[in-house]
Specification:
The protein has 11 helices and 8 strands. With 334 residues, the protein is α/β, with parallel strands linked by helices. It has an 8-stranded mixed β-sheet with strand order 1-2-4-3-5-6-7-8, sandwiched between helices. Helix 3 crosses helix 9. It starts with a helix and ends with a helix. About 9% of the residues have low confidence.
Length: 334
């Protein structure tokens, strides 16, 4: 497990040493750097009322704050609406903020389904239809980006704009082969092995216990870790976490995911729908090179650098993210 994680994050760790500021001072010497204002606290609290709605015969959990046109937050693997807890307050005055828990994740039900990308598409679209959400601003991360971008590509008239980070987007996705991924290819090949993947993800709960905290620059405290552990306490609850890495479009497999990701990728570079890409260095899915490609190839996109980060950037820079989205959306709605 350690070797696999090392392979997955080796590039990120090396790159972070290049982009993070470093200072060295002689004994007793003080920095000449001006004192920077203290960053707002990153709270572990989740001070939101729980709401539930029936979708396809199962209860889906969501946060619902504010009024007006909806701002829909969609998380990825292995997180939940908890990921957005420090971002949500920055948007509450701008509209009806809704943060969904994907089916089988967070506080949503765990029906006996396959939990494929196609399954999640049906539940997310069912959620939007059941709540009758119109004129949506999407805020997306990880697999939530694939779900949101697919929805937007098929319902463009119902979407005002899209903010996304660490997303499943071109030019990195779909992936031609494990080999072109470099060190992370070994990680994903192992995750997709029916025996090894199940051992690591189902039995050892590696995505929660190792991948998640290793993809955050700061150390998550026990309150935060327990919040992420809560939906996946026992082995039988972890099926959704296992299926997600098997759905990543690598080498033409799985065919349906390749088709959907390719389709919305082509749509992204042709639509005039306003987009905001928030990126970190070194990043994981979206390093600065991807941010540059998106700026060069997507018609109506803004790019915002949020600081040093790997993948779960909401745990490192939630207030920067929230303020950037609020500023972009304020201009968007004029």
């Amino acid at each position: 497990t350690t070797r696999l994680l090392g392979a997955f994050f080796a590039t990120a760790v090396v790159m972070s040493s290049l982009v993070l500021p470093s200072q060295s001072f002689a004994a007793g010497e003080k920095s000449a750097m001006p004192t920077m204002p203290k960053a707002p606290e990153i709270s572990a609290d989740f001070p939101f009322e729980s709401h539930y709605i029936d979708v396809l015969g199962s209860k889906m959990h969501y946060v619902d704050k504010g009024e007006g046109d909806p701002i829909l937050f969609i998380h990825g693997n292995p997180t939940s609406s908890y990921l957005w807890r420090n971002v949500i307050p920055h948007l509450e005055t701008q509209g009806r903020v809704i943060a969904i828990d994907l089916i089988g994740m967070g506080k949503s039900d765990k029906p006996d389904i396959d939990y494929t990308f196609a399954d999640h598409i049906q539940y997310v679209e069912g959620f939007i239809d059941t709540l009758k959400l119109k004129n949506i601003t999407l805020v997306l991360h990880d697999w939530g980006s694939a779900l949101g971008l697919d929805y937007a590509s098929r319902h463009e008239n119902n979407v005002n704009g899209i903010a996304f980070m660490e997303a499943i987007v071109p030019p990195g996705m779909p992936v031609a082969s494990y080999e072109v991924m470099g060190p992370p290819g070994e990680f994903f090949r192992t995750m997709r092995d029916p025996v090894k993947g199940a051992e690591l993800i189902i039995k050892q709960n590696m995505f929660i216990e190792e991948v998640l905290p290793s993809s955050v620059m700061r150390k998550l405290n026990e309150v935060e870790m327990d919040a992420y552990r809560a939906p996946f306490i026992d082995a039988k609850s972890r099926k959704p976490i296992l299926v997600w890495p098997n759905e990543i479009p690598i080498g033409g497999v799985p065919a349906n995911t390749v088709r959907v990701v390719s389709a919305y990728g082509k749509w992204m570079v042709n639509t005039d729908l306003p987009m905001l890409h928030l990126y970190a260095s070194p990043g994981a899915l979206n390093p600065p090179q991807v941010a540059e490609w998106l700026v060069q190839n997507v018609n109506n996109i803004e790019s915002s650098y949020i600081g040093p980060g790997i993948h779960y950037v909401q745990e490192d820079h939630p207030h920067v993210i929230g303020k950037a989205i609020a500023d972009w959306r304020r201009r968007l709605m004029k």
